[in-house]
Amino acid sequence: MEYRTALVTGASKGIGAAIAAALVNEGLTVHALARDLSALESLAARLGPRLKPLAADVRDHEAIARKLDGVPVDVLVNNAGGLATVRPLHEQSAEETAEVVSLNLTAPLQMIRLVLPGMIERGRGHIFNLTSTAAGAVFPGTTTYGAAKAGLSQAGRILRYDLAGTGVRLTEIAPGRVETDFYMKAFDGDRELLRNRMYTRQRPLGPEDVAAVLVSALRLPDHVDVAELVVTPSEQAAGGHTYPDAPKRQS
To answer: What's in the keyword line of the UniProt record (predicted)?
Structure first.
């Protein structure tokens, strides 16, 4: 593998930590980006010197650029994201809506903009955008999140057109339900409620499953680009319908 250095966002836990570990095992030096420095240091203690903690808010692209000055990033994994609430758009605050867009769409686009010039100059690189099945299917209460992930998905399609012939590959991975703490904020920090509601009746994916899929795409010869991957539990199929009663109008 020609790739030597990776940048993984949201790397302190869950899917990001699993991807960071998998890339270290592949021999890459991984710059692990997250806000929680102590969690990153614990990860580095477990994975060794090729794991480089990078404490920053993924939305602060200027600070990240300064910290990465001179680092030739070969692999970018846009994993960081967030879901403030699971409720209809008209019940969200303006701040919650803006936060979801900035985390799930604006920040990854800024990360791509940051690393692409170097990748194109070196003639090699691989960008991974982790979106969601919510980008293409309807899940109640996820209007802003689904829109942001769909925007990132479309951005990837356009980028693949723009990057054709540069040696830079781009892969979208859209996971279904993965057992992590991703929904903790939306469940008001109630871990037991989260587990009972989402992870007990069906078998969810684990973070390592997503990491294994990513590494499989990365290992392919550089003339092969797996453009889009949808990865779901065997017991999950997105879809459904709703037929509520007609509204009662005031006279």
So the answer is: Oxidoreductase
